[in-house]
Each structure stands twice: as structure tokens, then as C-alpha cells.
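Researcher: We plan to redesign the surface later, but first we want a full-length starting point. C-alpha cells attached.
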């Protein structure tokens, strides 16, 4: 079921390779694991996406694509998974990274999180500058905490997909056995 759903929305390798803007990447996109929906490739794609999602700035998908191509893991899954960092989740994730960085630096509780900008009173055009200023005020704990959080989320995501995939397969095997047994009776 999940594979069918993923296949419905994931572009085919042939479409990407034939696309005019992406044609020059065709030699890099030939490995079957970049597009195949198997347990290891998808779990690796999720881990890559979770790691790359915490790369600051607009480089998340580029980082995920490079890592997926080099690691030969599912490219569309890696790109899609980076979307867990979005305008609604980025502030809580960065606050968590700040707290983790403070803990790793042995300064937990000693550092205060800089106050958030007053987003509602700022014009949209000033949001990026205010956000960057706020991030820079967080300093070292944030820049230690981001890679640490990424290194925690990536293996956790990999393991969750592995466990979920195995459970799904066992569950369907069990259902199939019950159907066969019922058909024999």
C-alpha cells in the first residue's frame, strides 16, 4: 500500500532524465537505488533527508540530493523528507538544537535563548534579516546543536523506517497466511 502511494507521487527516473533542465544530470541519476522503493534505499533516503533538513539556508535539498546520489539511496524520498523543516517547524527545531548545544557545551541553564523577533509587527520583507539576526544571537550552542540534532534524527529515522517496513511486511504475510488457511478450510 505505501509503495503504491509512493509510486503514484514519485517521478519516474525516465521523466527526470528526459526533463530539459535536468538532462545534464542523467549520468549521475542512473543508479537503480536512487529510484527503487526498497527498505534500505527508502530508509537511507529518510535518514539523509532528516540530516540535510537541518542544513541552514536554502541548501537543504541540494545537500540531500548530493548525499543521496553519493550514498545511492532513494533520491525523491531524501528530497521530500527535507520538507520537515518548514516555516512552522523551523523555530522549534532550532530551539531544540540550541538546548542540545547548550547541554553539550555544559552550559545548560546558564544560557538564555535570545528573544524572538516580533514577527507580527515586522513587514514580510524584514523577516529574513530578523531571523538571521536572531540565529546569530544564538551563537555557538546553536551551531553545535544543529549537527548534533541532525546526527540524532538521521539514525532514528533510519531505524523507524526499517522497523515500520519490517512490521508492514510481516503483517501482510500473516494476513496472507490467514486467507490461505481460510480458503483451505
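Model: Full-length starting sequence:
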Amino acid at each position: 500500500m505505501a509503495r503504491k502511494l509512493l509510486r503514484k507521487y514519485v517521478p519516474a527516473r525516465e521523466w527526470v532524465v528526459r526533463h530539459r533542465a535536468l538532462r545534464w544530470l542523467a549520468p549521475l541519476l542512473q543508479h537503480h537505488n536512487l529510484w527503487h522503493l526498497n527498505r534500505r534505499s527508502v530508509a537511507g533516503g529518510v535518514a539523509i533527508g532528516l540530516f540535510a533538513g537541518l542544513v541552514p539556508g536554502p541548501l537543504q535539498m541540494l545537500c540531500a540530493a548530493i548525499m543521496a546520489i553519493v550514498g545511492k539511496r532513494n533520491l525523491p524520498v531524501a528530497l521530500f523528507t527535507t520538507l520537515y523543516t518548514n516555516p512552522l517547524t523551523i523555530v522549534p527545531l532550532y530551539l531544540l538544537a540550541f538546548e542540545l548545544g547548550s547541554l553539550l557545551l555544559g552550559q545548560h541553564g546558564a544560557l538564555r535563548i535570545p528573544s524572538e523577533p516580533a514577527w507580527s509587527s515586522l513587514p514580510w520583507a524584514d523577516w529574513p534579516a530578523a531571523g538571521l539576526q536572531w540565529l546569530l544571537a544564538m551563537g555557538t550552542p546553536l551551531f553545535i546543536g544543529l549537527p548534533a540534532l541532525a546526527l540524532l534524527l538521521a539514525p532514528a529515522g533510519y531505524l523507524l523506517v526499517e522497523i515500520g517496513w519490517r512490521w508492514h511486511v510481516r503483517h501482510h504475510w500473516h494476513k496472507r497466511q490467514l486467507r490461505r488457511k481460510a480458503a483451505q478450510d
